[in-house]
Amino acid sequence: MTQPTPAPVMWIALDVPTQQDAEKLMARFSRHRHYKVGMELFYRMGPEAVAKWIEDGQVIFLDLKLHDIPQTVGRAVSQLAGIGVRMVTVHVHGGPAMCEEAARQGRGMDVVGVSVLTSLGQGDLEMLGITRPLPEHVAELTRLARRSGLAGVVTSGEELALVRALWPGGRFVVPGIRSAQDSPGDQKRVISPEGALWGGATDLVIGRTLTQSPDPEQKYDELEQILAQYLKERAAND
Ligand code: C5P
Fold first, then answer.
1. Ligand 1 centroid to 119 CA: how many Å?
2. Is residue 2 assigned to a domain?
3. Cβ atoms 140, 130 nearer than 8 A
4. Residue-wise burial string across 108-127, b where 16 or more C-beta atoms lie within 10 A, e elsewhere
5. Could you read off the pLDDT of 21-65 as tens digits, one per residue?
6. Residue of 46, 39, 101 whose CA lies nearest to 64
7. Which of 24, 52, 65, 188 is the catalytic position?
8. From atom 3 of ligand 1, which residue's Cα is the shortest distance away?
9. Is this model's pTM higher than 0.85 or not?
């Protein structure tokens, strides 16, 4: 029997400086369980606070973009798996041995690769000695992530179709989610929640579209409705 396709996950990005700010934000979305913690907050509040949230029932995606020698990254991943983190990011540029070791040490935690940061353009790649077109480079790193046993990749909405074609069954984490009425801010490659869902995202990073909204609670309800509608239509099409 084939496994049912899991529902996409919306991760609310806790892009705030302190644990207190993060908990204030979480209290606004009390039904919600999935949160993304980045470097800023993690380095301030530390793994014990994350472990406590997990004990309290939160599901945590640590976006630490690890990049070091294989043994060091493997051991870091092992520590995070030990406290029950659900998903973590590593830079695919760390190479196949690093990605393999990270995947091996994940023990049930999904390790997801970052290919090319959305802040980098073709000119930046050239300065690093990478001369092939950026989409080709993203494709090659996605293949490497897959071969190395990672669970999926972080991808902009623009590259979602490209990477999805390369990796049936992969996990595709899409940041830069913006509704029509939002300003893109510093994000260059944005996509609507509907576009990401129908484009095959398995995970949506929900940041300022929610937190900077004039009415975050109402916006949260809207996002929940969009997801529910998508799941209904997907079930009808199956
Ligand atoms: O507020 P906004 O929707 O721009 O939030 C984006 C979140 O996604 C931030 O936490 C940021 O670190 C993360 N992210 C990103 N672009 C990537 C990878 C992660 O914006 N390529």
1. 10
2. no
3. no
4. ebbbbbbbbebeeeeeebee
5. 999 999 999 999 999 999 999 999 999 999 999 999 999 999 999
6. 39
7. 65
8. 207
9. yes
Task: Return the structure tokens found at 152.
Answer: 């999926």
| CA 155–ligand 1 middle distance (angstroms) | 11
Can you give the pLDDT at residue 2? 64
Check residue 83 and give its pLDDT. Answer: 97
Residue 1 lies in a domain: no
What's the domain count of the chain?
1
Q: What digits encode the pLDDT tens for the residues 160-215?
A: 999 999 999 999 999 999 998 887 777 678 999 999 999 999 999 999 999 999 99
Domain assignment of residue 217, given as a range: 9-237
How many Å lie between the centroid of ligand 1 and the Cα of residue 47?
21
CATH label of the domain that carries residue 35: 3.20.20.70
C-alpha to C-alpha distance for 90 and 152, rounded to whole angstroms:
11
Q: Is 36 a catalytic residue?
A: no
- Is residue 160 assigned to a domain? yes
